[in-house]
């Protein structure tokens, strides 16, 4: 069985596992966890992870139990086979935008409690979710799941990974927020009025790429395969974050040389994941700053030094840009 502290290369936060089985009866929950090789104790372990393949199997098992590809989250079931039917309907559209609007209409027919909206205001486009599911934990998981499915569809329609410029989430930062960097990129905003993902509007005018062969590939074990591809897609940005955690804050070209690639290659790999070197650096600094500012034994100068800034004024400017508040005000709140 998957151990609560499993650290495989392709893993998924146990927070998703707990949410996935939340609508099952206790007996059904025990049954599907056992069938998928997931230890029940992971449900109560905040930092536990499970192999991605086990989570994929869990999605299928829960869908079979409930006849619902959306985990029983909406008051109307998304019956097994709905996602595949929707994807087949998208093949008749000539542009990515036309197909994505058809997907929007399809999801809005499937669900009663969640509404998808596609908004284009060049140079930006956004997919917004209007969600009335209660309680908050289930609403959050519904948004997480549907955003990943929508982004997966967008990438499939475009024939490439479409970088996300930003993600906004209508809830406080969860304990598994680190997972969001892999799913939605580094520019994340929590406690937002509406949940959304933002991308380049020019993608919508492109020719829709899918054909019958790519449809068969895309639908293999869908929809959970789409989720797993999105969750596991940001290997280079995660690798950069791990390297930066050594706290010497090297330059991009220096790290590229360490890894035996050119600086251009490293930047291209990060761009393909919808991020950049500076966005990864800023995201990590933000996360560390929030944690370090909670330790009142550290002066602002010490926090700034730990984050690679030359002085507290640089930290002040960066933190105000990230949060709208000064570090001292945040510490005093």
Structure description:
The chain is of the alpha+beta class and 333 residues long. It contains 16 helices and seven strands. The strands form two sheets. It has a five-stranded mixed β-sheet. A two-stranded antiparallel sheet has the order 1-2. A hairpin with a 2-residue loop joins strand 3 and strand 4. The radius of gyration is 21 Å and the shape is globular. The protein starts with 10 loop residues before the first strand and ends with a helix. Residues 2-9 have low confidence and may be disordered.
Class of secondary structure makeup? alpha+beta
Low-pLDDT segments:
2-9
- Number of helical runs? 16
> Biggest β-sheet: count, sense, barrel?
5 strands, mixed
| Oligomeric composition of the shown chains | single chain
Short characterization:
This protein has helices at 14-20, 26-35, 52-66, 82-89, 96-110, 136-158, 178-184, 212-219, 224-231, 235-244, 252-258, 263-272, 277-293, 300-306, 312-323, 327-332, and strands at 11-13, 49-51, 114-121, 124-131, 166-169, 188-190, 195-200. By secondary structure, it is α+β, with helices and mostly antiparallel strands.
């Amino acid at each position: 069985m998957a151990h609560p502290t499993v650290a495989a290369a392709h893993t998924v936060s146990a927070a998703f596992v707990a949410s996935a089985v939340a609508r099952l009866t206790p007996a059904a929950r025990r049954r599907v966890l056992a069938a998928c090789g997931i230890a029940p104790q992971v449900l109560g372990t905040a930092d536990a992870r499970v192999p991605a393949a086990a989570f994929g199997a869990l999605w299928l098992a829960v869908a079979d139990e409930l006849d619902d590809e959306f985990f029983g989250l909406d008051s109307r079931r998304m019956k097994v086979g709905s996602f595949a039917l929707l994807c087949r309907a998208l093949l008749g559209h000539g542009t990515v935008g036309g197909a994505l609007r058809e997907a929007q209409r399809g999801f809005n027919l499937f669900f009663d409690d969640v509404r998808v909206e596609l908004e284009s205001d060049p140079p930006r486009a956004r997919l917004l979710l209007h969600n009335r599911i209660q309680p908050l934990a289930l609403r959050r998981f519904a948004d997480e799941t549907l955003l990943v499915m929508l982004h997966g569809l967008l990438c499939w329609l475009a024939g490439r990974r479409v970088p996300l410029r930003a993600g906004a989430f209508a809830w406080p930062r969860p304990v598994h927020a680190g997972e969001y960097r892999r799913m939605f990129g580094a520019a994340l905003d929590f406690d937002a009025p509406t949940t959304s993902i933002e991308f380049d509007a020019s993608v919508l005018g492109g020719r829709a790429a899918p054909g019958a062969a790519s449809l068969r590939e895309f639908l293999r074990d869908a929809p959970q395969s789409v989720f797993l591809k999105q969750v596991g897609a940001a290997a280079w940005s995660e690798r950069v974050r791990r390297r930066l955690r050594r706290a010497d804050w090297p330059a991009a070209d220096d790290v590229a040389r360490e890894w035996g690639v050119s600086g251009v290659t490293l930047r291209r790999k990060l761009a393909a994941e919808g991020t950049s070197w500076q966005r990864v650096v800023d995201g990590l600094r933000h996360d560390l700053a929030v944690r370090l500012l909670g330790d009142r034994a550290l002066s602002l100068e010490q926090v700034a030094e730990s984050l690679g800034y030359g002085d507290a004024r640089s930290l002040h400017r960066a933190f105000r840009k990230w949060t709208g508040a000064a570090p001292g005000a945040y510490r005093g709140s």
